[in-house]
Amino acid sequence: MNNKAVIIASGGIDSSTLLYKMVKEGFEVYVLTFIYGQKHLKEIEYAKSIAEKLDVNHKVVDLSSMKVLLSGSALTDSSVEVPEVPETVEHYETLQSTIVPNRNAIFLSIAIGYAVSLKANHVFFGAHFSDRGVYPDCRKEFVDAFQESERLANDNPDLIIDAPFVDIDKSDIVKLGVDLGVPFKETWTCYKGGEMHCGVCSSCRERKRAFVDSGVMDPTEYEQ
Q1: Alpha carbon distance 75, 101 (integer Å)
Q2: 214 occurs within a structural domain
Q3: Is residue 1 predicted with pLDDT exceeding 60?
Q4: Fewest beta carbons less than 10 Å away: which of 9, 32, 44, 128?
């Protein structure tokens, strides 16, 4: 059995938990982390650290020149502020500004090319159900359609794009991460990239809520 697999990892809770899960399940893991013109690179260092802990192959792919093509996102465009979100309210219109156009499709295309070169049939990423309302490329429909497209593109009916968290909430990922021994304190979520998590961007709010809903103690230091 071919147990090689490529995973897209950002250094956050979701992809770190997925990486621990893959290692436990016996996959020979090859990790990709992308620089795509995001406003800070803290997540890159956290992804490196997690990969080193697990002693798995890790490559950082520099796509920073894409930044000029992906304007309008609060994550890549210096003219767009990262929105702060009230604690108890979902502002989907506000969160639209954090969408990076076609990001997962771009990352997955590269990861699949890498997998093909490794003769690996599995590509994993950490999309989850909690994000489907805002991010269309985190939905199961996208994963299924993209898998079919890439099977045709590579003439490989055995190619699997696997997003095992696509039907579960982030709080369930936290529970799984506890069981797997994921060092949550050594993961990074915040969109702002300060000395510690800001606590008020949408990503920090989601992180906080996941720990509360899971009943797991949150080890994260927040500014607010």
Answers
A1: 11
A2: no
A3: no
A4: 44
